[in-house]
Amino acid sequence: MPFVEIMAVAIALAMDAFAVAIASGVALKVVTRRHTFRLAWHFGLFQAVMPIIGWFGGYAVREYFLRFGHWIAFALLLYIGGHMLWEGLHKDEDNVCQDPTVGTKLIMLSVATSIDALAVGFTLAMLGLSIWVPAAIIGVVALLFTAAGLHLGKYLGCETRLGQYAEVLGGGVLLAIGCKILWQAL
């Protein structure tokens, strides 16, 4: 697979991670190096590992996962986005935004934004292509896009009035991404 095609796939796969990172940056009042590392590392790692899993899974579970993978991503994003939307609309003055770069929320976001990379791994296996270089490039591109998105979101949250509505906005973005995944699959 030519490098240009690998980069195009990597950038396309990184778009969901980029959008979630922007929403996370808006939700956080302060984005530290630790936040950046955790979110970018996890998103990059999951984006790199999912095509490898898909590649090894090959034909065995291809039909099952292609039929239900979009539902899994949709359910995860629906749950997280709905929870963020609920929290944003029912927020106390003392209540602060939950950090999306820790705990189960981080893992669920990582899985939800990298489900489509699994299909790329399946495709590469069917074409008889190696997975190692594409997976590394996909992971690095996702890591970079996530870090950039997190800081862009921080800027938007600090410099605009978006910070006041961060959880509502973030929840809405996640719900929209989930619906987009479902719409494309149906």
TrEMBL record:
<feature type="transmembrane region" description="Helical">
    <location>
        <begin position="131"/>
        <end position="153"/>
    </location>
</feature>
<keyword id="KW-0472">Membrane</keyword>
<keyword id="KW-0812">Transmembrane</keyword>
<protein>
    <recommendedName>
        <fullName>Putative manganese efflux pump MntP</fullName>
    </recommendedName>
</protein>
<dbReference type="GO" id="GO:0005886">
    <property type="term" value="C:plasma membrane"/>
</dbReference>
<comment type="similarity">
    <text>Belongs to the MntP (TC 9.B.29) family.</text>
</comment>
<keyword id="KW-0406">Ion transport</keyword>
<dbReference type="InterPro" id="IPR022929">
    <property type="entry name" value="Put_MntP"/>
</dbReference>
<feature type="transmembrane region" description="Helical">
    <location>
        <begin position="106"/>
        <end position="125"/>
    </location>
</feature>
<keyword id="KW-0997">Cell inner membrane</keyword>
<dbReference type="Pfam" id="PF02659">
    <property type="entry name" value="Mntp"/>
</dbReference>
<feature type="transmembrane region" description="Helical">
    <location>
        <begin position="40"/>
        <end position="62"/>
    </location>
</feature>
<feature type="transmembrane region" description="Helical">
    <location>
        <begin position="68"/>
        <end position="86"/>
    </location>
</feature>
<comment type="function">
    <text>Probably functions as a manganese efflux pump.</text>
</comment>
<keyword id="KW-1133">Transmembrane helix</keyword>
<keyword id="KW-0813">Transport</keyword>
<keyword id="KW-1003">Cell membrane</keyword>
<feature type="transmembrane region" description="Helical">
    <location>
        <begin position="6"/>
        <end position="28"/>
    </location>
</feature>
<dbReference type="InterPro" id="IPR003810">
    <property type="entry name" value="Mntp/YtaF"/>
</dbReference>
<feature type="transmembrane region" description="Helical">
    <location>
        <begin position="165"/>
        <end position="183"/>
    </location>
</feature>
<keyword id="KW-0464">Manganese</keyword>
<dbReference type="GO" id="GO:0005384">
    <property type="term" value="F:manganese ion transmembrane transporter activity"/>
</dbReference>
